[in-house]
From TrEMBL:
Record field: transmembrane: 5-24
GO molecular function terms noted in the UniProt entry: glucuronosyltransferase activity; xylosyltransferase activity
InterPro entries per record: Xyl/GlcA_transferase
Superkingdom, natural source: Eukaryota
Protein's name according to its UniProt entry: Uncharacterized protein
GO biological process annotation, one example: protein O-linked glycosylation via mannose
Location in the cell: Membrane
Organism annotation: Volvox reticuliferus
Membrane topology field: Single-pass type II membrane protein
Length: 469
């Protein structure tokens, strides 16, 4: 026990030293050369999104009532001027803690685009009454709804993303064209600061894409090297993928892999790297890594969630030379590439990591034809090394520490006249939203609840107007 604590301390110190080193390098670089950005696209996005903003803060009751928050402000966008070489974008969401995973994902798609919505929750808890007017005015200048205690957090997040963006631009064609969207959310109850408005964020990232093909990926998933290196560089393949996605409503399924928990933590990322760099001609090596070496598993299988990816049919995939069609099974939760205009928006009622994605996938598979790509896959990157977040953690000093924030979920609250906790209410509520959605789907009258900001952007952004074809 004691040696564990000691180990952790040295490990943390090590990370801190690394971070200071890298931050220094990044900032030094950034101050010399701040890369160009597509400010016209940035402004269009900010205008349509923020015209719907209300600064009074998200209430737990709004979430319970299935009302998507309007207190999410698109503070800043970083839109790369790099030209994409092929028409595929990933869209994803993250908080600042997992920004290194985003950098890895971007590197796995050189020539393509990654749009990421980054969430910064700002609690109204602990905002002192009657703060000095100058500080309040300063905060209001930085962004609507902000209080003086938030200024440092928002500035720090902005500086961190400046650095991430500049580093990525410097990586030229070895990384993706990156689009970052920093959204802060004013939350009234502390518990909401741990329940990300996950689907509102996914929708925000989706409207920042403008390619023919898109895929929603979790931030800690990266694509195999042949997706960007081979498949998307083949004009025939791209034409076929776009054509079938648009005309035949095909969803191109990406088989997904997890690194085994039996692999020691410090080796997990190298196993992920190995699986990502396997050539598609040698995909039997993945079967070896799974069945012989037990380093890799089909996604979620080791955790016992068989149905999540079983329909992909990994055994068939190992020998498949061509894409093949599959049928939906209840519980199936694949990631896929689809036409941007046919990709479903996500139900904005959900918050937190529970039941949020399965609804969108279930509804998509009602009108999309699923086909598995034979030479493309994605691998889940373990979370061990998170170097770039120190600045943000530092900024969080003003807020409660993570343990305390988590505890906010367990604070008693009265809902509908009954004493409960936010955690309990959250689980029950997401399950309830899920059940309603499924029964509506079964009756063929389900439409995801959208937040007004995304609805508005979809109406007005030039790249979201349907092509007259
Ligand atoms: C927030 O402000 C808007 C506009 O002023 C108002 O309509 C709404 O009721 C307010 N919501 C809350 C929760 O106070
Ligand atoms: C900026 O983005 C817009 C919208 O996608 C695009 O039409 C325009 O060509 C881009 N400009 C530059 C300089 O990249
Ligand atoms: C990246 O750019 C370099 C230098 O221009 C070029 O040699 C290389 O082929 C490019 N790589 C890709 C994947 O486009
Ligand atoms: C998994 O998929 C295979 C083939 O697609 C099917 O035969 C099998 O019944 C499925 N297993 C479960 C548990 O659904
Ligand atoms: C964030 O704030 C901390 C503490 O003030 C500071 O040391 C760090 O350099 C900041 N990070 C960035 C990227 O500005
Ligand atoms: C509150 O109670 C009413 C009546 O029982 C019910 O219809 C409603 O769904 C409940 N709301 C929540 C948030 O549980």
């Amino acid at each position: 026990m004691a040696s564990g604590i000691f180990f952790n301390c040295t490990y943390i110190q090590f990370i801190v030293i690394l971070t200071i080193y890298y931050s220094y390098q990044g900032l030094a670089f950034e101050s010399i050369n701040s890369p160009p950005r597509n400010t016209s696209a940035e402004n269009l996005l900010k205008q349509c999104y923020n015209s719907q903003f209300q600064p009074n803060g998200t209430l737990f009751g709004d979430y319970m009532n299935g009302q998507p928050t309007r207190s999410l402000y698109l503070h800043r966008v970083w839109w790369s001027t790099k030209r994409a070489v092929f028409p595929l974008s990933f869209f994803t969401i993250t908080d600042l803690k997992r920004i290194t995973a985003l950098q890895e994902q971007c590197k796995s798609l050189p020539g393509g685009t990654v749009a990421a919505a980054i969430w910064l929750p700002l609690s109204l808890n602990g905002v002192p009454e009657g703060v000095d007017a100058a500080a309040a005015a300063e905060a209001a200048k930085l962004g609507p709804g902000l209080s003086a205690v938030h200024v440092h957090i928002v500035e720090n997040a902005t500086a961190l993303l400046d650095e991430v963006f500049a580093q990525n631009e410097a990586a030229a064609n070895t990384s993706c064209a990156l689009r970052l969207l920093l959204l802060y959310e004013i939350v009234v109850q502390e518990a909401l600061a741990v329940l990300m408005p996950i689907n509102i964020m996914r929708n925000a990232a989706l409207i920042a894409t403008d390619s023919d093909l898109v895929a929603m990926l979790d931030v800690d998933l990266s694509a195999n090297k042949d997706l960007a290196g081979l498949v998307m560089r083949s004009p025939q393949r791209v034409t076929e993928m776009v054509f079938r996605a648009e005309r035949q409503h095909v969803a191109w399924i990406l088989p997904a892999w997890d690194v085994s928990r039996s692999v020691p933590s410090l080796k997990r990322n190298s196993v992920a790297d190995e699986a990502l760099s396997v050539s598609s001609k040698e995909k039997y090596r993945l079967e070896e890594m799974w069945k012989t070496k037990k380093q890799l598993f089909p996604f979620a299988l080791e955790r016992g969630y068989v149905l999540g990816h079983n329909a992909t049919n990994y055994d068939r995939w190992f020998t498949a030379q061509e894409h093949y069609g599959i049928e939906y099974e209840e519980g199936y939760e694949p990631w896929f590439i689809a036409s941007r205009f046919l990709t479903p928006f996500f139900d904005a009622r959900f918050r937190g990591y529970y039941m949020n994605k399965i609804v969108a996938v279930r509804s998509a598979t009602r009108f999309l034809n699923m086909r598995v790509l034979p030479d493309v896959w994605i691998v889940h990157r373990p979370h061990e090394v998170q170097v770039a977040n120190f600045g943000w953690l530092e900024a969080q000093k003003n807020m409660k520490n993570k343990q305390q924030v988590m505890m906010a979920l367990d604070e008693p609250m009265v809902i509908n006249g009954t004493m409960t906790t936010a955690r309990d209410a959250f689980f029950k509520r997401n399950l309830y939203f899920y059940r309603i959605a499924v029964s509506q789907m079964n009756a063929f009258n389900y439409t995801p609840v959208l937040d007004v900001a995304v609805e508005n952007c979809r109406k007005v952004l030039p790249w979201w107007q349907h092509r007259a074809s």
